[in-house]
């Protein structure tokens, strides 16, 4: 782990992210976009996530701060968590002052709290603070931090719980380049083979292992004969899921983890999965229709709100988990898989919601806020575009 300030006189942009891939994947995408523009990057994260020994963050300074979530714990654990967050905040303030950070960008969750509060404690000399919200409901940490933010980037056109007057910009959710590239790959409705992709979080969801094979077994034989299934399943469930499809004579790939998600998503005719912010962004960037089953335990039902946004656009169908039974899923699958035109229409609606350039949009927002403390070592994109040479080049490019 490197903890040294970047050399060369350039002030780093600090990215605060930790925990799940839903926070780290967009953080890495933004880091790459900013690094390509010449900005040094520093990462502030939590012990749960640890340091990154590969990828864009391995090229810069990394700082692991104490902290823990407070919500949902007893008084004793909440008190310990509050103390850890306070220690992390003081450490973050000291590090940010030493780095002379150009900006701080948080991606939600409690790992964002110490860095962003630490930036706030720097007073009138603080760097700009940017929040990214990946869901259609402002997360608990972001809801607490929003009043300090100079800019809030959103992934949905409408986001609940935003404070009145908040400076918001619809950027979309940054995804991996290999996923963004799927936006230009057309959707081909199913023919003789129907490819069904089932995913559910980082290691799969048990409810899909319980329900999907049973539902598939209830489909008409002629429809089952056309299916090829790729399903993410927990390690302890993988063998029984595999055996169920074998008994049905259906070719299936079952694994807790797939390294070739872009390939699988690009080939899918229909996806069954959760409705987390990253999953929804990948579906819309790829332009793939989906049956969405929101995680039922989320306090703010952000996945329900995410799914509802796609349903309203005609891009997906939502089944709440209490209603996600084998008979109900079989009925829905028989209807959808027998209607290739309907699937193609949903795919087109999903693609219309995609923002494959979200990382660029978010980088533009961050750079646009650097005017609070401009750094002459590297002008922002807006400053560059304002120069006579850039204006001439743009005019030349668009002149017939």
Automatic annotation (TrEMBL):
InterPro entries: GlcNAc_MurG, Glyco_trans_28_C, GlycoTrans_28_N. CDD domains: GT28_MurG. GO terms for biological process: carbohydrate metabolic process; cell division; cell wall organization; peptidoglycan biosynthetic process; regulation of cell shape. GO terms for molecular function: undecaprenyldiphospho-muramoylpentapeptide beta-N-acetylglucosaminyltransferase activity. Residues 13-153 form the Glycosyltransferase family 28 N-terminal domain. This is UDP-N-acetylglucosamine--N-acetylmuramyl-(pentapeptide) pyrophosphoryl-undecaprenol N-acetylglucosamine transferase. Residues 378-400 have a biased composition (Low complexity). Pathway: Cell wall biogenesis; peptidoglycan biosynthesis. It is found in: Cell membrane. It is an enzyme of class 2 (transferase). Cell wall formation. Catalyzes the transfer of a GlcNAc subunit on undecaprenyl-pyrophosphoryl-MurNAc-pentapeptide (lipid intermediate I) to form undecaprenyl-pyrophosphoryl-MurNAc-(pentapeptide)GlcNAc (lipid intermediate II). It catalyses: di-trans,octa-cis-undecaprenyl diphospho-N-acetyl-alpha-D-muramoyl-L-alanyl-D-glutamyl-meso-2,6-diaminopimeloyl-D-alanyl-D-alanine + UDP-N-acetyl-alpha-D-glucosamine = di-trans,octa-cis-undecaprenyl diphospho-[N-acetyl-alpha-D-glucosaminyl-(1->4)]-N-acetyl-alpha-D-muramoyl-L-alanyl-D-glutamyl-meso-2,6-diaminopimeloyl-D-alanyl-D-alanine + UDP + H(+). It is a peripheral membrane protein. It comes from Gluconacetobacter takamatsuzukensis. Pfam families: Glyco_tran_28_C (PF04101), Glyco_transf_28 (PF03033). GO terms for cellular component: plasma membrane. Its EC number is 2.4.1.227. UDP-N-acetyl-alpha-D-glucosamine binds at residues 20-22, 135, 176, 202, 303. Belongs to the glycosyltransferase 28 family. MurG subfamily. HAMAP family: MurG (MF_00033).
